[in-house]
Amino acid sequence: MKHINGITFAAATDNDLETLVAIRIEAMRESLQRIGRYDPIRARERFSNSFSPEHTQFVIVSDERVGFLVVKPHTDYLLLDHLYIKPHWQNQGIGAATLKHVFSEADRIKLPVRVGALRDSDSNRFYLRHGFRLVESTEFDNYYMRPFAANETSS
């Protein structure tokens, strides 16, 4: 477990799939409804098909699982494959602290971070505010990269 600003990050297991799916659906519902693509069965299948517990961490505040993140290593970057915070817990700095957690690891291993966001989601502004730059747009998604921050003390 790792702690940042009162937030704890704890590893997920295979047994956590249904909890993770429920958090994802709760967090994505409004954005998906806005574009007419809300389908909880499809959302469950999409997440289940790529579920990798070894790359998944819960975001915990006051002993409550308020969200989760999935970070998958690639050769040239870390993929922030999922970052969901329950709506009730949004706009309280939890997502920013979670990104700080991801950036810390990315900067340590000197890799950029890539993330995708549903085009009409509020998460696009969130990622831009936190140093990501748009690199690609598709019919439904935008893709962003955040370069690693070179540490002044590294050689």
Structure description:
- The chain is an alpha+beta fold and 155 residues long.
- Helix content is 33%, strand content 32%.
- It has helices spanning 17-34, 40-50, 94-108, 123-129; strands at 2-4, 7-11, 56-61, 64-73, 78-85, 113-118, 133-137, 141-146.
- Strands 1-2-3-4-5-6-8-7 form an eight-stranded mixed β-sheet, with helices on both faces.
- A hairpin with a 3-residue loop joins strand 7 and strand 8.
- The longest helix is centred in the N-terminal third of the chain and has 18 residues, at 17-34.
Instruction: Please state how the strands of the largest beta sheet are arranged side by side.
Output: 1-2-3-4-5-6-8-7
Strand tally: 8
Q: Please tally the helical runs, counting DSSP H or I stretches of 4 or more residues.
A: 4
Distance between the termini: 29 Å
Largest sheet: 8 strands, mixed
Overall pLDDT level: 88
Counting helices, strands and paired strands, the structural category is alpha+beta
Order of helices and strands: EEHHEEEHEHEE
Gyration radius (Cα, Å) is: 15 Å
Please estimate the helix content: 25-40%
Unreliable runs:
none
Strand content: 25-35%
Overall, the morphology is: globular
Characterize this entry briefly.
The chain has helices at 17-34, 40-50, 94-108, 123-129; strands at 2-4, 7-11, 56-61, 64-73, 78-85, 113-118, 133-137, 141-146.
